[in-house]
Structure formats: structure tokens, C-alpha cells
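Hello,

Our lab assistant flagged a job as stuck in the queue for most of the afternoon. It eventually completed. Since we weren't sure the result was trustworthy after the delay, we are filing this so someone can double-check. Below is the sequence as submitted and the structure that was eventually returned. Let us know if re-running is recommended.
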Amino acid sequence: MNSRLPALHPAARAAAPKLHFLVWHDIVARRKDVWFDTTRAEFAAQLERIEQVGGRAVSLEDARTWLLEGRGTMRAGSVVLCFDDNTMGIHRNGFPLLRERGWPFVLSVHTGYVGVRTGKDHNTWAMLGEMTAAGGTLASQTVTHPPDLRTLDARALEREMAASREAIERVAGTPPFALTYPSGKWDSTVARAAAAAGYLLGLTEDHGAADTSPHTLGIRRWSTHKRFDEAVDAIARSARRR
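-- returned structure --
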């Protein structure tokens, strides 16, 4: 396995920060089950704020092209909207608001629990297909969402990453090129395993602009639960550089 992780393209690295990834988890109607739920009303207000400061949603595919190849027109203030854990509230409460705006987004899926209820109900493959047809992109979030990938041995890491990628390809027809690290827990060993499994991007919960990330398997994302205001300020600063 190559010990060096792939760098961001020099064109993306050299530019003033333009691109920001934001991450949500479940979008609920009203009552929060856990602290990192977001209500539909809160989410609607957050989308409005992003737009007010000049943020513009872009697809994960466009972000990949910019970060890896330095190609495409990446306007300052661009935002990738990410949703982790594949909970059904994303489909019921978040997706209608995204569809109204025509904004692309990312759905991170732990394939062992598609259509299954654990603590929460998870979207079915049919729901995921509906959302991808309307601008969503699927990312792997492993098979079983281990609490900490750093604790797994090499064989278990390979199984979690490769099997989830294969499951998404079987249903969607295209393998995902991005892996979301469950609970944001990762290190260089985990990132190298992701690269070996065929992923081009690794999505973290390390905060900051995406184009300041250390490499393509360590893409920074802003947690909307802890750092939404900080993220909006960063997006606004980027947008003012146009």
C-alpha cells in the first residue's frame, strides 16, 4: 500500500479557500431524539442563511473534479451539503426542502442497515434512488458504521470499505468514489485503507475549508451541530472574494 496519500490538485490548493463541506445527520419534524438532530424548521433557516451570505450548493462530483484535477469552475462560496447515517428523516423532512431549491447533496449510507430500524428508521434503496434521481450522490459510510475504524484490523477495515462499495454499485450501478468516516474517526492507516479500496475522497468531521484539507482522503467538513455559525462566516468570507 502506498504510504503517501494523494494530494489535492495544486490549482485547488493554491486558490484562496472557495469550497466548504457541511454535514448534518437526521432532519426531524419537531422533536429531537438526540442532540445532533436538526428540526425541519432549523434546517430551512440554515439553508436560507447559506443562501443569504452568497453560498451556492455544488455537487460532490464537481467538488471531486476541482479537488483532484483542478478543473471546472469552482465559484468562491461553493458548498457541498452532506447528510450522514441515512436516517429516514432526511427523506421525509430534508429532501423536500433541497428539491424545492434544486440543490445537490450527498447521502452517506451504511449499507448493512439500509431499510432497517436500529435506534432510528433508515432509508430504503428505493428512497435513496428517488433522492439520487433528484440531485443526490451516494457515499459509502461502511457496512456497519463501526464506532471507531481506527480500532479495526486490516482485514476488518477492508471488509467494511470494500463490501459497502460493492453493495452500492450493485444497486446504483456505479461505485461510490467517496467514503465518510463513521463518527469522523480516522487516521492515516484508515485513509490508506480507503484509498486501497478504491475511494478517491475521504470525508471527515475535521473543520475547515475543503480546499485546505491535508490530502484527498482527509476532506474537511463543518459540523452544522457544533460549528454552523463559524461555517457560515467562512462561506461569507469566501463569497466576498468573487
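-- support follow-up --
The delay was a queue issue, not a problem with the job. The result is valid. The chain has one domain: 10-239. The helical segments are 10-14, 40-52, 60-69, 88-101, 125-133, 154-172, 188-196, 228-239.
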